[in-house]
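Postdoc handover notes: sequence design on the structure in folder B. Input tokens:
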């Protein structure tokens, strides 16, 4: 019976204590400090081991400016519990409230001086200083705490966090790296902080410190080399990152994934030389039977192609070397489901760069017939094959293939693309009304690119179809566009000149200038292309070609004409003045990239 009575009493006491705690918190939040002080004093007497209640009692007294009561309570508590050095911080806070700065500093320093070799008390005291944003004192606490506990680096992460808050980059980096050395699992968290708070100079400081640590560390240790590779990636120094990745791959006998990742990052940043080195390393060091070997082969070919064709900066010899690499790949792996996309790329090289349409058509015919090829890959091959037939003038073969893809993938983007190309073919042939009806339907495509192109052509036909009863001017322009599509540039120039001569002052004048600019660009006559795009911008401010002209002119200045400032200016004009354009979002990304922002 006595046990039951005691249990009932204890339960009732616990319930009452919890209720008083909630009520005290409510009073404190509501600013009723007289009531909260009374309740927290009672709670602190009931639970003298719970420092929170006493802290809130003192906080309530300070809010009431009952400084004498607070000082008396603190002195009494310090006599009873001298090991609670965080009380000195409260005492210092009280003295600051009384404008006794010197006395407050004495108390803060006393807290540090009286610090016991107790991890809980060390953390408690540091948190008390942090709560008052007194980071220098918190740093002293953690540094002394490490010495007292004789555990170097125990509080490195906490110190890194404090130096980060203070904005002291060098010790912040040093302590965070110490923390990673002690607990490698913290590496990702530290990388997040570095990415968020370090600029280029800060990352270079991290690089310098990591070099020193790697030289001093055990040769088997990989944490710091991995961190260094990450820093190089942030600095976009992919060549240095690749050196680290290759060394780690060899040391850990990895499968090459780390190296492949660096290659992909480098390729995406147009550092093609480093990307190719990464893929070649995998090809030379990994077994041909592994999946990553095939990935490296594929990515290597694609990157070599981009290195040659990106920006139209290549020679005939470059193209032949690339062609040989593609043929070597297909000789090794054959034309099959795994290599089908490579074959499609080779066909594009033959058709659009080496002007060998027959070879391109033969390659794609093999892809279309190959058993087991993914249906969408096969459809992509058919679309490319249809384009090359059209370049040869085989209109019926071309429209048949477009229609096959349209029928099989009616609700898919591939079907929309096929329908668009078929409608464009009708436009080339002069069937403007039917073509426009198809473009009007495609304006609702889920692909913004197809929808935008369809809208442009629909508006273009509508604007020009009624200008003369014969629609001869529009047909002549369509003929010129087809000639450009077929890479018959001299004939296209002649056709455009005849159009301008036959129809002086026609609404198509801006389109003529724009198409000539595209021809100059394809022929790598960059200065003339830039002048023509600029003419569209200057002379035809209402032209539907204006946003495209801005985009292409900005690209020319960025890549070929080496004037990044001018490119940045043009991208800014595009996304500000023509925000409704499909190109506006990409222009904003380019602008931020050129400005040096981190673009996701």
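Designed sequence:
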């Amino acid at each position: 019976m006595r046990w039951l009575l005691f249990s009932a009493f204890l339960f009732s006491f616990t319930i009452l204590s919890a209720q008083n705690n909630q009520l005290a918190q409510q009073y404190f939040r509501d600013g009723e400090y007289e009531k909260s002080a009374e309740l927290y004093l009672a709670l602190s007497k009931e639970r003298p081991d719970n420092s929170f209640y006493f802290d809130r009692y003192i906080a309530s007294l300070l809010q009431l400016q009952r400084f004498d009561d607070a000082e008396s309570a603190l002195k009494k508590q310090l006599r009873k519990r001298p090991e609670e050095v965080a009380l000195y911080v409260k005492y210092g806070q009280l003295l600051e409230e009384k404008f006794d700065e010197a006395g407050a500093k004495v108390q803060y320093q006393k807290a540090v001086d009286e610090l016991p070799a107790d991890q809980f008390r060390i953390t408690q005291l540091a948190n008390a200083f942090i709560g008052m944003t007194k980071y220098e004192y918190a740093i002293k606490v953690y540094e002394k705490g490490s010495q007292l506990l004789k555990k170097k680096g125990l509080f490195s992460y906490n110190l890194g966090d404090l130096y980060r808050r203070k904005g002291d980059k060098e010790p912040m980096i040093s302590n965070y790296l110490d923390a990673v050395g002690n607990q490698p699992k913290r590496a990702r968290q530290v990388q997040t902080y570095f990415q968020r708070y370090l600029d280029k100079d800060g990352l270079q400081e991290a690089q310098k410190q990591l070099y020193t640590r790697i030289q001093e560390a055990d040769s088997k240790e990989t944490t710091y080399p991995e961190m260094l590779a990450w820093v190089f990636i942030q600095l976009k120094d992919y060549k240095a990152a690749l050196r680290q990745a290759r060394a780690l791959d060899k040391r850990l006998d990895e499968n090459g994934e780390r190296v492949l990742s660096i290659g992909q990052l480098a390729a995406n940043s147009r550092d093609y030389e480093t990307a190719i080195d990464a893929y070649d390393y995998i090809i030379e060091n990994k077994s041909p039977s592994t999946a990553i070997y095939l990935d490296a082969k594929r990515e290597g070919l694609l990157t070599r192609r981009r290195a040659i064709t990106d920006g139209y900066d290549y020679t005939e010899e470059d193209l032949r070397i690339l062609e040989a690499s593609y043929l070597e790949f297909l000789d090794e792996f054959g034309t099959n489901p795994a290599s089908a996309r490579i074959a499609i790329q080779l066909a594009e090289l033959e058709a659009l760069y080496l002007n060998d349409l027959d070879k391109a058509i033969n390659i794609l015919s093999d892809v279309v017939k190959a058993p087991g090829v993914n249906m969408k890959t096969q459809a992509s091959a058919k679309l490319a094959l249809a384009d090359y037939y059209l370049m040869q003038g085989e209109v019926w073969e071309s429209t048949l293939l477009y229609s096959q893809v349209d029928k099989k993938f009616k609700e898919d983007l591939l079907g929309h693309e096929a329908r668009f190309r078929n409608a464009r073919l009708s436009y080339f042939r002069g069937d403007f009304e039917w073509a426009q009806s198809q473009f009007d339907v495609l304006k609702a495509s889920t692909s913004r690119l197809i929808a935008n192109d369809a809208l442009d052509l629909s508006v273009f036909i509508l604007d020009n179809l009624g200008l003369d009863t014969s629609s001869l001017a529009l047909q002549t322009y369509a003929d010129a566009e087809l000639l450009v599509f077929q890479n018959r540039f001299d004939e296209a120039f002649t056709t455009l000149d005849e159009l301008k001569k036959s129809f002086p002052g026609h609404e198509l004048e801006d389109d003529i200038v724009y198409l000539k600019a595209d021809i100059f660009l394809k022929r790598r006559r960059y200065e003339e292309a830039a002048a023509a795009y600029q003419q569209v911008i200057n002379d035809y401010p209402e032209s539907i070609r204006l946003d495209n002209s801005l985009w292409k002119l900005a690209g020319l200045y960025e890549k070929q004409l080496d004037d990044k400032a001018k490119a940045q200016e043009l991208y800014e004009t595009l996304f500000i003045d023509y925000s409704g354009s499909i190109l506006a979002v990409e222009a904003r990304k380019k602008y931020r990239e050129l400005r040096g922002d981190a673009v996701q």
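Context for whoever picks this up: Residues 472-595 form a domain with the Serine Threonine Protein Phosphatase 5, Tetratricopeptide repeat fold (CATH 1.25.40.10). Don't rerun without checking with the PI first.
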